[in-house]
Amino acid sequence: MIQVLEGVNFTDAQEFVQAINKARLGLGKSWMVYQGIVAGKDVAIKSYGTGYLQILRVDGINSPPPMDINVGQWKQAILDAIS
């Protein structure tokens, strides 16, 4: 598992989604995790590429994202959970 954007917090959810997607692209097919503050909320993400968003937790609430999703759906699931 690779920690991405370590120690980086974001004030804007859209900016965060762009940054985490860029980090994902740099890793290829591997597990990645993020823990930090996005738009004033505590966010935890664990994902394998975009096909498996295993953990999507915002302020302690787990959001069950769909499986086998494409990049657009992956980004939208993260945005929806933070918003």
Class computed from helices, strands and strand pairing: alpha+beta
The outline comes out as globular
Largest beta-sheet characterization: 5 strands, mixed
Helix-strand sequence: EHEEEEH
Mean pLDDT: 93
Number of strands: 5
Amino-to-carboxy terminus distance = 26 Å
> Percent range for helical residues?
25-40%
- The DSSP helix count reads 2
Unreliable spans: none
Beta-strand percentage range: 25-35%
Q: Give the oligomer, counting copies of the same chain as homo and different chains as hetero.
A: single chain
3D structure, described in words:
This protein has one domain. The chain has 83 residues and is of the alpha+beta class. It is built from 2 helices and 5 strands. Helices cover 33% and strands 33% of the residues. The mean pLDDT is 93. It has helices at 13-27, 71-82; strands at residues 2-3, 31-38, 41-48, 52-58, 61-62. A hairpin with a 2-residue loop joins β2 and β3. The termini are far apart. The longest helix is centred in the N-terminal third of the chain and has 15 residues, at 13-27. A 5-stranded mixed beta sheet has the order 1-2-3-4-5, with helices on one face. α1 runs antiparallel to α2.
